[in-house]
Amino acid sequence: MEKNKKFLDENLVNKLKEITKLFETNVELAIIKGENQEETEDIIQMSTEIAATSEKISVRVYEKNNVEILDKGIDLTKLPAVVILNENKEFSRIKYTAVPTGHELSSFILAMYNVSGPGQKLTDEILGRIKKLNKKINIKLGVVLNCTRCPDTVQSSQRIAVENKNIDVEIIDVFSHKDFKTKYDIINVPAMVINNSKLYFGQLSIEEVLEILEQQ
Predict the structure, then answer these.
(1) Residue 82: what are its φ and ψ, rounded to 5°?
(2) 80, 111, 128, 131: which is deepest, by most CB within 10 A?
(3) Per-residue model confidence as pLDDT tens digits over 16-31
């Protein structure tokens, strides 16, 4: 990482301070180191800058063989990553195998807001459908950080994961993880991979993501 590199300007810092005032409980940004040192340092820097906007956000850096991390059920196949832990240090089932910058910064902030509470409002009908998902479903979302279509799909998937422990979501930067892009022949983003097999493309609302998950 470049010396004195900053991801957040003063305007963004002030906006984040206003948003994080709404957080109800503490969250931890758990950073799991990877072999790519530059990307690891960027994730640490970005997470540290975000955490500086609120006393309710803490940052901790872990080695991938750390016992505490191994016990949380986090998929450690792709690293480095930052995962959101709730107030009880439990894995929120949201993992960013990416530096949460660009258009995904808003997605990342919303993810913390949803984990901390009160979270984005959901209708009773949507919440009921989410609660009925009774199969384990892993969602991998291939994104690029300057993609304007990706945040809707990311935010919809994350919101569902927060409300249902059967769902976990990993947001993957396809530029940093070209093996993922190649494996699933990702020709466009956002790309949603369900349970490492089924592939869906496009900007999706929470209703559209739910329809896909209900079919699994």
Answers:
(1) -125, 130
(2) 111
(3) 999 999 999 999 999 9
Cβ atoms of residues 61 and 21 within 8 Å:
no
Decide the pairing of beta strands 198-201 and 91-97.
unpaired
- Strand pairing report for 81-85 and 91-97: antiparallel
C-alpha to C-alpha distance for 152 and 5, rounded to whole angstroms: 28
- Report yes or no: 39 and 131 within 8 Å, Cβ to Cβ: no
Whole-angstrom distance, CA of residue 166 vs CA of residue 78 = 21
Alpha-carbon distance of 47 to 43, in angstroms, equals 6
- Give me the helices (H) in 65-140, please: 67-70, 104-116, 124-131
The predicted model scores a pTM of 0.96
Query: Using alpha carbons only, what angle is made at residue 44 by residues 40 and 48, rounded to the nearest 5 degrees?
Result: 170
* pLDDT tens digit sequence for 141-168: 999 999 999 999 999 999 999 999 999 9
Task: Using the Cα atoms of residue 123, residue 128, residue 131 and residue 137 in order, give the sign of their dihedral.
Answer: negative
Nearby residues of 120 by Cβ (< 8 Å), 6 or more positions away: 110, 113, 114, 159
Helix H or strand E encompassing 155:
helix 150-163
Question: How far apart (Å, rounded) are the C-alpha atoms in residues 89 and 58?
Answer: 11
Looking only at the bridges linking them, the beta strands covering 57-62 and 27-32 are: parallel
Inter-residue contact 194 to 169 (CB < 8 Å): no
